[in-house]
Write a structure and sequence with these properties.
It is a single chain. Helix 2 links the parallel strand 2 and strand 3. The protein folds into two domains: about 180 residues, Vaccinia Virus protein VP39 (Rossmann fold, 3-Layer(aba) Sandwich); about 60 residues, Helicase, Ruva Protein, domain 3. The protein is an alpha/beta fold. It has nine helices and nine strands. It has a seven-stranded mixed β-sheet with strand order 4-3-2-5-6-9-7. A two-stranded antiparallel ribbon has the order 1-8.
């Protein structure tokens, strides 16, 4: 089922059996799971997923020729959605509890992840996802580090995240120029509830637009004529965006929402 990788789609097919097995082991698929695989490529990981005999397997593959080959090979064992993952309608996620596995397209991986975090229809038991190592380092970054960023806050709002393994370029065909990392995301039981999750996106965007500048400016943009209580968060106007931990950002989003009547 080998296909010539398309540069335009940033295709790098994972073929290393050890890594494929590590992903499957981390997923620990059960017979009643509905599994969604994103970017199955040539179906190397799909085979392992199908072998676990889950209740249902969906695959989302943008490349039409690959999606046809997967359809022909796996027949009724998988439901193929030949679409760009970013254009899959929200209602696809309704009334399902999905275990999501994917080697995400690197150029849109943070967009895919933040969309899932903000999607109120998404109910998931677990995500096992591969990213460019640099992006994975940002997702798992600690406060007060240069890697700490918007995607750190948005993903850690919803999930407990841990690293499964790093993946070398040799594990792919063709070999990418960068290392990759597999992460596990487990949904948090209690999360901050927002009136509109898009507000977490908006607030973090204002802060990180100028990540090296003091937070006084983004606070003024967001809170305008309202007094912001720096003491409540043990913050100073001279602090920088990466000095504010995830919990404090979530509290700031809550305070921002109170102004929106």
């Amino acid at each position: 089922m080998l296909n010539k990788p398309k540069k335009s789609l940033g295709q790098n097919f994972l073929h290393d059996k050890n890594i494929l097995k590590k992903i499957i082991h981390a997923a620990s698929i059960r017979s009643n799971d509905e599994v969604l695989e994103v970017g199955p490529g040539t179906g190397n990981l799909t085979r392992y997923i199908v072998d676990q005999n889950p209740k249902k397997v969906y695959v989302i593959e943008k490349d039409f020729s690959l999606s046809q080959k997967i359809n022909n090979y796996f027949k009724e064992k998988v439901t193929v959605i030949s679409k760009d993952i970013l254009k899959v309608p929200q209602n696809f996620y309704e009334n399902k509890k999905l275990l999501i596995i994917g080697n995400l397209p690197y150029n849109i991986s943070t967009k895919i992840l933040s969309n899932w975090c903000l999607n109120q229809n998404l109910n998931t038991s677990k995500l096992i996802l591969m990213f460019q190592k640099e992006v994975a380092d940002r997702i798992t970054a600690e406060v007060n580090t240069k890697e700490f960023s918007r995607i750190t806050i948005i993903s850690n709002w919803k999930f407990n995240i841990k690293k499964i393994c790093d993946v070398s370029p040799e594990c792919f065909y063709p070999k990418p120029k960068i290392k990759s990392t597999v992460l596990e995301f487990l949904p948090k039981k209690n999360i901050y509830k927002f009136k509109d999750p898009k507000n977490i996106e908006k607030v973090t965007k204002v802060f990180f637009n100028q990540r090296r500048k003091m937070i006084k400016k983004p606070i003024n943009i967001l809170f305008k004529n309202h007094k912001f209580n720096f003491e409540k968060y043990h913050l100073a106007p001279s602090d920088r965006p990466q000095n504010i931990n995830v919990e404090k950002y979530l509290g700031i989003v809550k305070d921002y929402e109170k102004l929106l009547h």
